[in-house]
Write a structure and sequence with these properties.
This protein is 32% helix and 15% strand. With 668 residues, it is α+β, with helices and mostly antiparallel strands. The strands form 4 sheets. The protein has an 8-stranded antiparallel sheet with strand order 4-3-2-1-8-7-5-6. It has a 6-stranded mixed sheet with strand order 12-13-15-14-18-19, sandwiched between helices. A hairpin with a 2-residue loop joins strand 18 and strand 19. Helix 4 (215-222) packs across helix 5 (257-268) and helix 8 crosses helix 12 (407-421). Residues 1-10, 144-164, 462-485, 515-524, 554-571, 579-588 and 647-668 have low confidence and may be disordered. Belongs to the protein-tyrosine phosphatase family. Non-receptor class myotubularin subfamily.
């Protein structure tokens, strides 16, 4: 690639700057060649104070989608940076000094992507050195806890000047009341006891509690649970059951009789039958999830040292698919509990901020067709993860703490498994899951950049918005007005074009599987359980309990329900396989309409290739076709590769005469 002349540098810099966001500064750039693709792609590698991006020659970034590019790597997303020159290959850490001019650099993303750029000779070596060192320095200075606040809302300002979020962010009392009305939970109300975050900063300002429980009782009751996260409604089943979630009992507290009665009343939620589910039982811990994800990333790198004949055994050794299998099995069991009888099912986790959200979300996907729509799924994520206080920043390593664990990505993998097994049941596609997967590494909104609703709300109040511009802290709009509008990850049109958003929709979705009304009322096909029955669900079996609260007999009982009693033997069959796992006097129940029971044995759990192997373009062949014409194009490319690789099987003259369209019709 020839060196640009001095006159060309000014126009090139101006062109590059036109694609920057407000407040974004270009630190260095260099012409390069993106490798690993067929054919290789010439362009320009750019490093800014926000991201590293590769701009192909002749490509212009759309002003309508300033953050949309498959070549963008936010600085916080870069896991590893390597420089190569001849036989030398070094890994560059923040603060490292490069001792040679690189011929090629490799940028490994924490989202499994790979950007491989080669630099041509001809007087451009200094630029290659400068852009590489700029990336090293920018990574050292970047901080995921610092919110980027200069996003141009080119589409948001049109019309009234206010941007209405596509998904309710559940930050107002009206949002919670409307959501409760949609679910038809008549025995519940919205509590305002945490409106000032004085009960728990990790809880939302509003949540659902039984109607007959006063806020004064709610405040006292929540004080007996870890982190103040007492029992709250997650979802109301159309048949009458209620799914609750809460933290572990705080065994150091000393409740009086009135508080104990209030705790039991909130757990029962007006039902005579209540089941406590030990969420942490049979599911991986945070350290297990983190270790499995690290092993998976190392295995899926293009330069992995694992031999091809041992790759599958190495994949099994990561245990990632085992954890996906365990989550799906547990969610299936809880779904059976919710639908088999009218009851209160309580998910109890020590911190109530990780596995409870995962299980609650999966249960709703298995039971509610409305949750499988694009709008419904986004609402579930906003309610059960964002508003419920999942510590996104800590789990994705933004605080430097040792509690990093991508639980949310484990959940997305579980959803992908459901999409593969029930392709006609989901309105959203794999491309939407990928967009959501990658959004946790892009610091452009507050959705995944804070640990609690309190932190998110505090940060959003530091930004002002005027019509079309989302301005940084302490800045003023042109007319001095300050409109407090918060962007969310659901504002997809800021990062994706209309064509890309259309790919979020699953072409195989059958709308008849999902009624038009939100959470429609179905006939009550469930019957109440035995009067005053209390159960503990642990190790795949139901064990009767004599009391719900651990303080009745002895204050020294531990705070985790599964430790109250001796653990039953682990069953090799799921609850669904055991004829719904119910005692014989309850009888068997037919499967309710809309319930999905996924498979989780052996090859039924698959590797998400489009996500985890995206750094290997050769593996992605055949995965990108969305239409018949697209499949024909990919088929033609595959035939060309076959012609090059196996000339003895496919003679050259035979391949050149073969019509891809004819071959495609024959393969049908």
């Amino acid at each position: 690639m020839p060196e640009p002349r001095s006159g060309q540098l000014g126009s090139l810099a101006s062109s590059l700057a036109s694609g920057c966001l407000p407040g974004e500064q270009i630190l260095a750039w260099a012409p390069g060649l993106r490798k690993g693709l067929e054919p290789e792609l010439p362009g320009i590698l750019i490093c800014t104070n926000f991201r590293v991006t590769f701009q192909p020659c002749g490509w212009q970034r759309s002003q309508d989608t300033p953050l949309s590019s498959e070549y963008d790597f936010s600085l916080v997303n870069i896991e590893r940076l390597e420089a190569m020159s001849g036989l030398a290959r070094v890994q560059l850490h923040p603060g490292s000094q490069l001792k040679f001019i690189p011929e090629e650099i490799l940028i490994h993303g924490r989202d499994f992507r790979l950007l491989r750029i080669g630099f041509e000779a001809g007087g451009l070596e200094p630029q290659a050195f400068q852009v590489t060192m700029a990336i090293v320095q920018a990574r050292a200075q970047s901080n995921e806890t610092q919110q980027y606040g200069g996003i141009a809302l080119s589409k948001a300002g049109q019309g009234s000047g206010f941007r209405k979020p596509p998904i309710p962010l559940l930050e107002t009392l009206e949002d919670w009341e409307m959501e409760l009305k949609k679910q038809g939970a008549k025995g519940w109300r919205v509590s305002t006891v945490n409106e000032r975050f004085d009960v728990a900063t990790s809880l939302p300002r509003y949540f659902w509690v039984p109607s007959r429980i006063l806020d004064s009782e709610v405040r006292r009751t929540f004080g007996h649970f870890r982190q103040g996260r007492g029992p709250r409604l997650s979802w109301h089943h159309p048949g009458g059951s209620d799914l609750l979630r809460c933290g572990g009992f705080y065994n150091a507290s000393d409740p009086n009789k009135e508080d104990i009665r209030a705790v039991e009343s909130m757990l029962q939620a007006g039902h005579s039958d209540v089941v406590l589910v030990d969420t942490m039982d049979e599911l991986p811990g945070l350290a297990d999830v983190q270790l499995a994800h690290l092993k998976l990333r190392a295995l899926c790198l293009p330069d992995s040292s694992v031999a091809e004949d041992k790759w599958l055994s190495a994949l099994e050794g990561t245990r990632w698919l085992d954890y996906v299998r365990a989550c799906l099995r547990k969610a299936s069991d809880v779904s059976v509990l919710v639908t088999s009888r009218v009851r209160s099912v309580v998910l109890q986790e020590r911190g109530d901020r990780d596995l409870n959200g995962l299980l609650s979300s999966l249960v709703q996907l298995l039971l509610a067709p409305e949750a499988r729509t694009l709008f419904g799924f986004q609402s579930v994520v906003q309610r059960e993860w964002v508003a419920a206080g999942h510590p996104f920043l800590t789990r994705f390593g933004g605080t430097g703490a040792s509690e990093e664990a991508p639980v949310f990505l484990l959940f997305l993998d579980c959803v992908w498994q459901l999409l593969q097994q029930f392709p006609a049941e989901f309105e959203f596609s794999e491309f939407f899951l990928l967009a959501l997967h990658d959004s946790v590494r892009v610091p452009d909104t507050l959705t995944f950049l804070r640990n609690t609703p309190w932190e998110r709300g505090k940060q959003s109040r530091q930004f002002n918005s005027y019509t079309q511009v989302y301005t940084p802290e302490n800045s003023q709009s042109p007319d001095g007005n300050c409109i407090n509008v918060q962007l969310s990850v659901w504002d997809w049109d800021l990062r994706y074009s209309n064509e890309q958003i259309l790919q979020f929709h699953n072409p195989g979705y059958d709308p008849e599987h999902c009624p038009e009304s939100w959470f429609p009322r179905q006939p009550n096909f469930m019957v109440p359980g035995p009067p005053s029955s209390m159960w503990l669900f642990s190790r795949g079996a139901l064990t009767p309990l004599h009391q719900l609260c651990p303080w009745r007999d002895s204050p020294s009982l531990l705070a985790v329900p599964s430790r109250w009693l001796s653990r039953p033997a682990t069953s090799s069959e799921s609850l669904a396989d055991q004829e719904w796992g119910l005692p014989s006097h309850w009888g068997a129940c037919p499967l309710p309409p809309g319930l999905l029971l996924p498979g989780y044995l052996g090859p039924q759990i698959r590797l998400w290739k489009r996500c985890y192997l995206r750094g290997r373009p050769e593996v992605q062949m055949g995965l990108s076709a969305l239409t018949i014409s697209g499949l024909r194009e990919e088929l033609a490319c595959l035939q060309e590769l076959l012609r090059k690789w196996t000339p003895r099987v496919f003679p050259q003259d035979r391949c050149e005469k073969r019509d891809p369209n004819t071959f495609f019709s024959q393969s049908q």
